[in-house]
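Hi C.,

You asked whether I'd gotten around to modeling the 145-residue construct. I have! Everything is below, sequence then structure, no commentary in between.
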Amino acid sequence: MMMTELQVVEHPLVAYALDYIQALEEGATGDRLAAFFTPDVVQEEFPNVLNPTGAQRDLAALLAGAEHGRQMMASQSYKVLNILVGDSTVVLEIHWCGTLAGDHESDAAGAQMEARFAVFLDYQNGRIARQRNYDCFVALSGATD
């Protein structure tokens, strides 16, 4: 996770959010990832080019998605561009890049994915109770030889 020229406000929720993003970058799954969420978490992914209808996920679906993502991606990086914090909410603007581990639909292993995300994290007792993702993907670039 990179944060260049970003002054991070010292706030417990910001620290929790950055720990969460670091865990995602490292491919966390299972109990390690579940520890960031309340048991009744709801994650909303608003419609985007990869998921035109959007999605709403509970904890089990979030964990299953993380496992699928870990298998699909050879690597990924998250660069936090901006952070806003309120009473119980952290908003992150993120530049994300990922490399496909294997062939996926019409894209070959090694293809690069890139997106800009706005992620809203609502906290209860230090854990994410609600997450809203606004993801904007750019076209895939082909695999490099």
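If it helps when you're writing up: The longest strand covers residues 127-141.

Thanks,
B.
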